[in-house]
Design goal:
The protein is 17% helix and 35% strand. The chain is an alpha/beta fold and 181 residues long. It has an 8-stranded mixed beta sheet. A two-stranded antiparallel ribbon has the order 6-7.
Length: 181
């Protein structure tokens, strides 16, 4: 939430919102929040607008949002477990489509499992090469990497985080603040 450095009243898109309280937190901070997911939402209200949509084909006008948040979502896109089918390039397509709905200089806060590249039954793990490929066309404002140590998360370097295996269970995470050029 600290990385979502936008003025109050900014229009923010939360992607992969179905079971997440994040869009409610974002709305409570004073952002005009639109929550999206492939599946219908079990709850409504709390200050966010809820839209059932596949963002590889966004139902929004170009340059509709000042910012977007995608926490623990991109790694599932194209894997098939949560719907949307199996497509090894669907995450790349989603990131390209997202650039269209953000205004120029729009901010995207993104988290993904990080480590050795791989795909498990539920999620994809990104290595440095895949992460740079999926974020091609975005400007990196900030990149942080964390590794799980017992029950805690410890900030570390990309090189150390890349040693982890995160395709089956997340052991390292990349947290990025990206800007649309």
């Amino acid at each position: 939430i600290r990385a979502l450095d936008l003025p109050r009243g900014s229009r923010v898109l939360d992607i992969g919102s179905r079971w997440s309280p994040l869009p409610l937190y974002i709305a409570a901070l004073g952002y005009r929040t639109v929550a999206t997911d492939l599946a219908p939402f079990p709850l409504q209200g709390g200050g966010a607008d809820f839209v059932c949509a596949d963002l590889t084909r966004p139902p929004f006008k170009s340059e509709s949002f000042d910012g977007a948040v995608m926490v623990s979502t991109l790694e599932h896109v194209g894997v098939g477990f949560y719907g949307g089918g199996t497509d090894p390039e669907a995450d790349v397509a989603l990131m390209q489509a997202l650039r269209l709905v953000l205004k120029p200089e729009g901010l995207l806060v993104l988290t993904v499992p990080f480590g050795r590249a791989g795909v498990g039954p539920l999620q994809r793990s990104y290595d440095g090469q895949r992460l740079r490929r999926v974020t091609d066309g975005w400007l990196w404002d900030e990149a942080r990497f964390h590794v799980r140590r017992g029950i805690a998360w410890e900030e570390t370097s990309e090189a150390i985080a890349m040693r982890e295996e995160s395709a089956l269970q997340t052991h390292a995470v990349a947290l990025l603040a990206l800007r649309r050029p």
